[in-house]
Amino acid sequence: MRFGVLGCASIARRRMLPAMLRQPRVELVAVASRDAAKAERMSAEFGCAAVHGYGRLLERDDVEAVYLPLPPSLHGEWIEAALRAGKHVLVEKPLALDAAQARAAVDAAVAAGRLLAESFMFLYHGQHAQVDRLLAGGAVGEVRLFASQFGIPPLPPGDIRYQAGLGGGALLDVGVYTVRAASRFLGELEVVGSVLDVDPVSGVDLGGSALLRTPGGVAAHLQFGFRHGYRSNYALWGSRGHLQVERAFTPPPELRPLVRLETQGRREVRALGADDQFANIAGAFASAVRDGVPPDVFGADIVRQAALVEAIRAFAEK
Ligand SMILES: NC(=O)c1ccc[n+]([C@@H]2O[C@H](COP(=O)([O-])OP(=O)(O)OC[C@H]3O[C@@H](n4cnc5c(N)ncnc54)[C@H](OP(=O)(O)O)[C@@H]3O)[C@@H](O)[C@H]2O)c1
């Protein structure tokens, strides 16, 4: 799958482009920037072409798919442009700011006949399938509660996450992972409560918490923020025990993540297998296109995720 990249984003340079070079199913063709010199520097680092301007990259016939790591408020416009140009699109999270935007993006993918996916790369780490096996083996009994936290220390003042107009805020940045993890393990959810800690100066939320529930009454308590000591975990608490994954969302490829298991009278820490989630998502996306999966194969997940995030915000603003 021949990829082009829109924007010399930090996540692209630090994680996704190195992973694409490790992934044999992917070829990195070109990187585009608003700034020609920036594109040149990045292209030299990764051995691909430099393009000045996102539109010009979309005009290239040698680009089949686009990786889109722009600030969240720009996702909608560039998803549409990339689909119109006939490209498959892998978009950084959060793909959309709300459910209507998510639905519009999925509809546009169907109309264009091109695959659209949200880059929740943590879903492509093998540790969660190992957790599934532990749960299926009765490690915690029947699940009663899900909990997840993702928090990071403060970022440099100019960061896109502090800019309301660019789709900043902790809910859209780190909170979305906890929401996606809850859906991954519990399925259908509704939001029953939330708080957001909004900074009066920047207007973005710096942290928050949400309570969700399944139709069967299993609760998910989510906590997130970016003025917090680093935490990136989820836990399932069941009728027989408790299981916690310690590096749930951003484990580096060489790390063997730990899972802590507690049952009556017994505590155990297991090291799960290391995995390369960025290379995996790029490879899975390429394979999905080659296998001819329907363009909206991820559509229901994309819309459900955006609707839950929108409901968390709406509840907090009531
Ligand atoms: N999946 C993950 O693990 C992960 C981790 C971090 C971030 N992300 C997501 O990736 C996206 C980018 O995050 P990031 O931290 O990498 O951001 P970043 O370093 O600030 O990069 C964003 C890029 O967007 C382009 N851009 C276009 N218009 C812009 C504007 N008005 N202001 C600022 N930049 C603009 C810039 O590229 P040019 O100047 O080259 O045009 C810039 O380099 C976000 O959606 C974020 O949530 C995902």
UniProtKB/TrEMBL annotation:
This is Gfo/Idh/MocA family protein. Signal peptide: none annotated. It comes from Marinactinospora rubrisoli. Keywords: Oxidoreductase. Residues 129-243 form the GFO/IDH/MocA-like oxidoreductase domain. Pfam families: GFO_IDH_MocA, GFO_IDH_MocA_C3. It comes from the Bacteria. SUPFAM superfamilies: Glyceraldehyde-3-phosphate dehydrogenase-like, C-terminal domain (SSF55347), NAD(P)-binding Rossmann-fold domains (SSF51735). Residues 1-117 form the Gfo/Idh/MocA-like oxidoreductase N-terminal domain.
